[in-house]
Design goal:
Elements: H1 2-24, H2 38-48, H3 59-67, H4 70-74, H5 89-98
Helix pairs in contact: 1-2, 1-5, 2-3
Length: about 110
């Protein structure tokens, strides 16, 4: 169960990072990345940041994560980009549990 949590959390973090980078470049396509809206991505960034991270995700972050396509996010789980994008992988791995998520079996 712990490895599933880590896989989903890491995947979520990678997708959030990719979406954040894409949005910073002005692309509109990030709004539909694995069903995560731009607002949802922004809401989750504070709790997985490498700089002064928030302890708990906001209600908006958890709501966005619960609407996301988690199997889609799983495709990003092996990316090594997280630290380079300012995302703490350990904090990212905790995000689904902090949002009381049920993990998909296919992750």
């Amino acid at each position: 169960m712990e490895w599933k949590l880590r896989s989903v959390a890491l995947t979520v973090a990678v997708v959030l990072a990719v979406a954040a980078c894409t949005m910073e470049m002005g692309a509109v396509a990030a709004q539909s990345l694995c069903k995560m809206s731009q607002e949802g991505v922004e809401a989750c960034k504070p709790c997985i940041s490498t700089v002064k991270p928030a302890e708990q995700p906001s209600d908006a972050c958890c709501a966005a994560l619960k609407q996301a396509d988690l199997p889609c996010l799983c495709y990003y789980k092996n990316s090594n980009l997280l630290p380079y994008l300012g995302i703490d992988p350990k904090r990212a791995m905790q995000l689904p549990a902090k949002c009381s998520m049920v993990l998909p079996q296919q992750c």
